[in-house]
Specification:
This protein has 206 residues and is an alpha/beta fold. It is 32% helix and 27% strand. Strands 5-4-3-6-7-8-9 form a 7-stranded mixed sheet. The protein has a two-stranded antiparallel sheet with strand order 1-2. It holds the Pfam family PCMT.
């Protein structure tokens, strides 16, 4: 099968199994995951599993990107901050829904940030704002954000990120050290209303 055929077959399976929203399904079909993985791993690009991308990091399994995208409940025009660009695949999925000009991403590893920028440009996502830096500080210049999500595990949501989330906004990420739980939290004034969505395994926050 061609890469396009493999991608559509994978998304067909995920859409049935995870009951994906129409916008999530559309975005996953639109973004060529094989362009974001190292060349030697492209043959496995449409296997539903994480793959190494260097610097001890991974590209998340497609089903996890799908689940997180659905949990974010994104709408066109939402302003979104991603912590942990990695190879750029997840933020490309996000930008397909909300628009690249509304999407911001921070990557701790400079080499990954440079490669992600190159790949995103190649795939038509030059409007995404991407920088190399410490995700714990967020990106206050572009806040407040409607949605913030982490693609790396933290012991708790960093205070700076909560401050940069608008009232009524949502933050999502894997929380915990030995045991990680995918967690959403809606911001209501000075409070976070949390909901747990099952155990996961992500690389730790840098």
């Amino acid at each position: 099968m061609t890469f396009d055929e493999e991608r559509n077959a994978l998304i067909d399976r995920l859409a049935d199994r995870e009951n994906l929203s129409e916008s999530t399904e559309m975005a996953l079909r639109s973004v060529p995951r094989h362009e974001f993985v190292p060349e030697l791993k492209q043959a496995a690009a449409y296997s539903d599993k994480p793959l190494p991308i260097g610097e001890g990091q991974t590209i998340s399994a497609p089903h996890m990107v799908a689940i997180m995208t659905d949990l974010l409940d994104l709408s066109p025009g939402d302003t979104v901050l991603e912590i942990g660009t990695g190879c750029g695949y997840h933020v490309a999925v996000t930008a397909t829904i909300v628009g690249g000009e509304h999407t911001y991403s921070i990557e701790y590893h400079e080499r990954l940030a440079k490669q992600a920028r190159k790949t995103l440009n190649h795939c038509g996502h030059s409007a995404i704002s991407l920088r190399h830096g410490d995700g714990r500080d967020g990106w206050p210049e572009h806040g407040p954000y409607d949605r913030i999500y982490l693609t790396c595990a933290a012991s708790s949501f960093p205070d700076c990120l909560i401050e940069q989330l608008r009232d009524g906004g949502l933050i999502l990420g894997p929380l915990g050290d030995r045991t990680q739980v995918l967690t959403t939290a809606h911001k209501s004034g000075t409070k976070l209303e949390r909901e747990r969505h099952g155990q996961v395994r992500f690389v730790p926050f840098k």
